């Protein structure tokens, strides 16, 4: 992608990496865009590692995969805590890579965790409850939310194969995701990008955001990543 006029220099040796999360609706293009962003950052000389959640390669991830493919049943709270535990498995690794100067690009994170579980509308599983097990995880420097309505998502490849890929669930999840723009630290961490454009147009909008974050991280050498804090007040 063309970024020449606003290129960034390779990582400053004295700075930590940036922790960037790609969130969004099903089939919004998160994995596609993580790949493109990795390529662009590496072209500019940055060290980059990618991670995705759920990480289906761990023992807990295998259980999550079985659930998403409707091979096993699990109580709503139990699967929710497994998704969270799957992130905690990687928390120390994320902190370590960031301190070594790697840019971490993360494909889904705790935003998906709380939103998809709350989208089930189980009266005993609120958004607030769902967020709690993730308090204390590494807090992203920026969360890019790729917004796509369910009708557009359904036109894209592979839709409908997994458990949550149903119209009502997707519409509930989208409403909850967008509602995070007005809540707690998520309101300052999250930026919404319209994912209904071409891959290149979306990549360009993402780059505009990422560039700002990388510059900010590089100007404050060795500042630690902060952690996800508790929601202290109900708006
Ligand atoms: N889940 C949860 O409940 N709790 C949690 O804590 C977490 C997740 C972390 C599986 O996630 C499910 O887990 C998910 C949330 C839940 N359920 N739902 N819904 P996953 O990340 O493993 O899901 P996935 O299989 O990777 O699908 P995805 O992430 O939704 O897709 P994507 O990464 O956003 O899209 P993509 O793979 O990049 O692209 C999809 C297709 O669209 C592909 O054919 C592309 O070529 C095409 N595409 C991409 N961009 C465009 C544009 N701009 N225009 C046209 N076509 C495009
Ligand atoms: Mg994906």
UniProtKB/TrEMBL annotation:
Signal peptide: none annotated. Keywords: ATP-binding, Kinase, Nucleotide biosynthesis, Nucleotide-binding, Transferase. InterPro entries: P-loop_NTPase (IPR027417), Thymidylate_kin-like_dom (IPR039430), Thymidylate_kin_CS (IPR018095), Thymidylate_kinase (IPR018094). The keyword ATP-binding applies. Its EC number is 2.7.4.9. Pathway: Pyrimidine metabolism; dTTP biosynthesis. This is Thymidylate kinase.
